[in-house]
Amino acid sequence: MSTSLAPYHALVWLRDDLRTDDHPALTEAIRLARQHNGRVTAVYILDEALWSRPLGGASRWWLHHSLAALADDLQRLGVPLVLRQGDLRQQLADVVRQGSVQAVLCNRGQTPFLRRCEAAAREALEPLGCPLLAGGGELMVEPDKILTGSGQPYRVFTPFWKALSQHHQPKAPLPEPEALGPGVAPVISGLTLASLALLPSTPDWAGGLRKSWQPGQAGARRCLDAFLQGSVARYGSQRDFPAQPATSRLSPHLRFGELSPRRLWDAVIALHGADGMPFLREVGWREFNHHLLFQWPEMATVPLKPEFTRFPWRDDQREFQRWCRGLTGFPIVDAGQRELWQTGWMHNRVRMIVASFLVKDLLLPWQWGEEWMWDTLVDACPANNPGNWQWVSGCGADAAPYFRVFNPSLQAAKFDSDGLYQRRWVPESAAPGDDLFAAASTRRRYPLPMLDHGAARDRALAALASLKPDPDTV
DNA sequence: TGCAATTTCGC
DNA sequence: CGAAATTGC
């Protein structure tokens, strides 16, 4: 390659790392380009046939706007963003040929799927004599680097968290690289963002998402700054009250890599020290779920506790639809589902309540709920979504025991005692504190509870008991 | 990061 | 006798 007459050209291959701050691959590419007096181009390749699962609708919406923001951010650094669609191997090879690229750099993927993509990319690049340099990563600690004393991966969160927070100080985040000087990279053909067809059109259901979010690195930074100035120190005491704006709302930004967890960790510790730990513990769950996904690539569909493959799930599409649409007749459950439908996000406390309701009250398979949220959440993450569903369902590695059944009315009384959250999303329900006379005129439109929670709880516990051989009958 | 029944505590 | 701790699902 050194004999090539073409100027040095490095390619940054972007996936779930749509930012310029703390970006090891971009930083290294720009360093190399400077060293060789060359240029850098970035590429995003949408290869849905290769994906382990198609991106959900809300995620597609987010990705569109995140790519739009990223193109601007990169432009400021003198790096054009090329969009491609189709077979990863072909597209990557074509881009490398067209641009006479000498090296492809990426942040090492942190899911089994992204690692397979890297293997495919290497295969495609080898005949071209072009190396793939994968480094950095999107976690605080690489998913195979935190091990128990006996060298095994952790299966329990608390010791994992202890090891992570005490023995694995995350690497310091890298600054955004300095912009390249004037000059242009060899032109590589690409698609327009619109032609990727990531946005919903008929109908356009994204109005609520547009009002709720600013995808992209600048939006992530805004969320982070607001959280750092405001509620991070109160997070531990306030986070469970869904009517309060006490959470960070950073999850979709982390999902698409618009903010690196190392930057987040660094900023929280720098400003709040130990007061930031209750929040960082949740970032620790994100790490834990990614580490789990590495051990169990089938985590999205296969229960980690094998006995749960025999669980007597019910099969009732009509009841599932009521749950999805927020028509269960339990205001806290329905409020959560409507917040999700309208904004692409749901408060974490309410996620636990609605998930428990699906799995334990309705006895419907957790995989149905996982798929629903995969499609509707803007933060739908291949590690967190299955990991959290398995946790709630009691079939995860370090799960809540199955007999922990959330009582929706008690949860509402504890965490939304004035009914503010429930009335915000389900105004037609008569939540506590409502003017009963006003509510009476509209109550007809709100369904009665679809089941008796006490009876449902008994049924769930009986179903669990059926998994274990009865010691008396052996 | 559950709930409810039961026992013990503290006055 | 109500609050708090304990226990089992």
UniProtKB/TrEMBL annotation:
Keyword tags: Chromophore, FAD, Flavoprotein, Lyase
Asked if the Swiss-Prot or TrEMBL record annotates the protein with the keyword Lyase, the reply is yes
Return the annotated site residues (Electron transfer via tryptophanyl radical).
Answer: 313, 366, 389
Sequence positions that bind FAD: 235, 247-251, 279
Q: Which GO terms describe its biological process?
A: nucleobase-containing compound metabolic process; response to light stimulus; response to stress
Keyword field contains Flavoprotein: yes
What the entry lists under SUPFAM superfamilies is as follows: Cryptochrome/photolyase FAD-binding domain, Cryptochrome/photolyase, N-terminal domain
Q: Which residues form a coiled coil?
A: none
Q: Name one Pfam family in it.
A: DNA_photolyase
Note on cofactor: Binds 1 FAD per subunit.
Domain Photolyase/cryptochrome alpha/beta, which positions?
8-140
> What GO terms are given for molecular function?
deoxyribodipyrimidine photo-lyase activity; DNA binding; FAD binding
Q: Which cofactor does it need?
A: (6R)-5,10-methylene-5,6,7,8-tetrahydrofolate; FAD
The UniProt similarity line reads: Belongs to the DNA photolyase family.
This chain's protein is named: Deoxyribodipyrimidine photo-lyase type I
